[in-house]
Amino acid sequence: MVVEMLSDSSWAGALGMALAAIFLSAVIFLFPWSAHAQADRQVPTSRQQVELSYAPVVKRVAPAVVNVYTKRVVQEQARSPFMNDPFFQQFFGNRFSFGVPRERVQQSLGSGVIVDPSGLVVTNHHVVRDGQQFTVALSDRREFEADLVLADERTDLAILRIDTGREKLPYLTFKDSDTVEVGDLVLAIGNPFGVGQTVTSGIVSALARTHVGVSDYQFFIQTDAAINPGNSGGALVTMDGRLIGINSAIYSQTGGSIGIGFAIPSNMVQSVVASARDGGHVKRPWFGAALQAVDADLAQSLGLDRPGGSVIRDLYPGSPADRAGLKVGDVIRAVDGFDVEDPQAVRYRFATKGLGGQARITYLRDGKARETSVALIAPPEDPPAEETTIGGRNPFAGASVANLSPAIADKLGLDILSERGVVVTQIEPRSAASQIQFQRGDIIVEVEGQKVERVRDLIRVTSGTRPQWRFSVKRGDRVFSATVGG
Fold first, then answer.
1. pLDDT band, very low/low/confident/very high, at 278 (cuts 50, 70, 90)
2. Which of 13, 143, 148, 229 has its CA 20 to 30 A from that of 181?
3. Of these residues, 152, 156, 224, 457, which one is catalytic?
4. Strand-strand pairing, 358-365 and 368-375
5. Is 434 a catalytic residue?
6. CATH code (residue 153)
7. Considering only CA atoms, which of 412, 394, 430 is closest in space to residue 475?
8. CA atoms within 13 A of residue 286's CA, in its CB half-sphere
9. How far apart are the C-alpha atoms of 265 and 207, rounded to whole Å?
């Protein structure tokens, strides 16, 4: 780390004051006062206003931001002392290990936010992933064991609960994330690098970022407030001291902050918190249509004036989208009045609606704008899941599988409508299925020349032993076929 000391002298001080005066004049010139501007969005018009402190906001919100410690037990295989030799690695890679696996306790640190005075804490799913023990440390250094109430990998959110008896804890209230605008001042509070609670300031630099790739529901608030490792799960707050997002990811090639951070919007956080209060199971509305982003080429072929929106490329028969009268080729442009520029934005709008009622869809058909209402219902589990863990001596041993349905597809984050079959839902570590490298979401198409349509078909065909197994698996849009020893 390089620390640069700046010298101080009388001429430098005079020059600094002159530059400050020029800067202040430029600010006033470029952003003239408008009598119609909202009071909370005024641009500073005096030096006194520029020198205002964030301290009152920080004092109010910082006590509700906590540290989250996660402990997990991991197994390590003893490795050869030659593994550090580049010549040895050239031939064997990282696969040469020996002995009995040994267990090691691994600890990780993140941040969290108290959102209920009874002790409900929001953090990121990746902070608590695979954890067996959780500890929440308050800003006053008190520590409490925490229970995991809900873990939602699809949104990268998790809810913990701590018990402080009858004591009411400081907490943050939510602010409607749809009211935030680019340029709004925000504060990021968390515990980067484990150095202790830290506050950084910045502005909202973008909204509705949908190509970040850290969760299934990609719809983020982007900020230039410094966010670093350990900030995950921390608070992004506005100048009125309300929670606008949960800091989750940064764009970086070095691991450090370069001023591009991403936060999960508070409206999404609220929907997950509501699920935690209502039994700990996340239930989201089902749209029932496969969507494709409208790029420049597709917009031209459809006769649209500009790219943007989502074209329907497939419909599940009897789904809410189907019943609302939508058809393949329709281009969705807005949900409840909010523009949706891609499929991720459509999914976000539905995910934050909750069950019950309807959503208003604005779409284009044959170049004409139309509207319809889509019912907000949960995806059906038809056929029943019949989730089962496969045993025996076969390539699928240790894999949990279920009958594919809209509910299971939604749970796994699969964009599948018309397919039927058996899908992998979980893989046991160090099992035959994990060695074959099956993945969650793989659809088992065929085993030993027999089509697999239900879980019972897979159980029947794998009940015996064979010297070799032939099977086909669909992953994404590709089908893989393989033959392995029994």
1. confident
2. 229
3. 156
4. antiparallel
5. no
6. 2.40.10.10
7. 412
8. 27
9. 9
Which residue of the set 111, 126, 205, 257 is catalytic? 126
Question: Looking at 232, 248, 271, 275, which residue is catalytic?
Answer: 232
Residues in CB range of 155: below 8 A, 6 or more apart? 125, 215, 216, 217, 264, 268, 272, 282, 351
Note the pLDDT of residue 208. Answer: 78
pLDDT in tens, 176-186: 999 999 999 99
Q: Report how far apart the first and last C-alpha atoms of the chain are (Å, whole number).
A: 55
Question: Does residue 229 carry a pLDDT above 60?
Answer: yes
> How many domains does the chain fold into?
4
> Ranked by mean pLDDT, which of 159-163, 298-302, 408-412, 481-485 comes out on top?
159-163
Of 239, 233, 272, 256, the residue nearest 354 (C-alpha): 272
Residue type, 472: S
Q: Which of 127, 162, 197 is the last residue of a domain?
A: 162
Closest CA to 396 of 442, 335, 340: 442
373, 283 Cβ separation under 8 angstroms: no
Q: Which domain holds residue 224?
A: 177-277
Q: Is residue 167 part of a domain?
A: no
User: Do residues 460 and 393 touch, judged by C-beta distance below 8 A?
Assistant: no
Q: Is 156 an active-site residue?
A: yes
Residue 469 scores a pLDDT above 90: yes
Q: For residues 61 and 451, give the distance between their C-alpha atoms in angstroms, rounded to a whole number.
A: 58
Query: How confident is the model over 126-158, as pLDDT tens digits?
Result: 999 888 899 999 988 899 999 999 999 888 999
What is the mean pLDDT of the segment spanning 334-356?
A: 91
Q: Is 177 a catalytic residue?
A: no
Closest CA to 214 of 248, 255, 190: 248
pTM: 0.77
Report d(CA 79, CA 305) in Å as an integer: 61
Whether 168 shows a pLDDT value over 70: the answer reads yes
